[in-house]
């Protein structure tokens, strides 16, 4: 199982071809983290968290942020040691062997492609709400929601995923300036939301605080984890950081602390103004998000509750008497979310590309378009995959499935850090995880805890996906692996690529 290890020295030879200038201090790292984290999850998943935990979702943000912090410290050590493409897949290959690396790469498909689908559905919710508010269009629910959510097909979500796929095939790259503007727009929109809602909070809306108990808070934390994806952007910058041993922990924990406080303020603004008690069924049972039962209950009250909204923040502002600001927040989400989909899908194609080049996936996956110089085959396949999931599944389910893959990958990285400390204690580490014997086990335990706090359907789907991955590995990949055949390539072009494509607007 652990016999086929891709030599770490061969991987590191890639990185040594080009060293990066160390220019980032603690403040720059913290701002990088804030820009990478704040966005999609808080725009899209607030209603899901409210349905699972009620006002207790504020505690869920703290739990998810803490698990992210310890996982990020482990991730940073591996990112600094192995600054080449492939993310957790490459780290696992170097430390725990091919089978574990394959399973991590297979799980990363859930992280990237399914996350892109989730953001597409979130974008659709804001787009439909914005069109309705702006032009009073009464769009049939059958065309803008999937079958689990009271509709038939989500055409806007499918459309935006198709558009992004086309852009990726053409090779369109976002500029740093555009990214910076979009980061500023979304942070300004959320800051405006907090400024307008906090002064009119009613304390009575926070009672009962945990209507579904700690189980509900844990389930919401497992979903809300999606709102923090992107924090590893800080980890991958270790090679460009001045005094990384001091500045990396400050940047990681500082950015996560700021984001957690910001998220809690937004959650408080929602809870305290319009309430966030879960919808119950006819027998008093709390209904699960993204189910026909919840859709029917919401339809009975004409979606007049934040847990029913597909654009929770804009809906809240309209409800408390700020329709124009609600319109602006919706517009901000519509502008910012497509770039998240782009980066998620780019990340997916990159993981596929690296796995294909290692022989674990068919060679045609890494074919380059003769004109556009992009991996068009795998980009189109990824686009079809994302579009189908966005068309037929609700955002909460997609986010949870994405989280299952992410949590598995982060747990694998945390294990890799411990293993490598034992097997190669003298290897150069630009950044060392502080108190690794405490931090890494807490990270692993935190990832396991959040994983098993996901819904039974999500966990079942993950293990089904893992079983399918094992079948593909043993029937195809194992016999074609380059490492298995004794071939290990070093790719100079990887020296410019961070360990994981940074999703700057998640």
UniProtKB/TrEMBL annotation:
Keywords: Membrane, Transmembrane, Transmembrane helix, Transport. It is found in: Membrane. GO terms for molecular function: amino acid transmembrane transporter activity. Residues 487-506 are annotated as: Disordered. Pfam families: AA_permease_2. The keyword Repeat does not apply. InterPro entries: AA/rel_permease1. The chain crosses the membrane at residues 26-47, 59-82, 88-105, 112-131, 151-169, 181-201, 213-231, 252-274, 324-347, 377-399, 405-423, 435-452, 458-476. Its main location: membrane. GO terms for cellular component: membrane. This is Amino acid transporter. It comes from Novosphingobium sediminis.
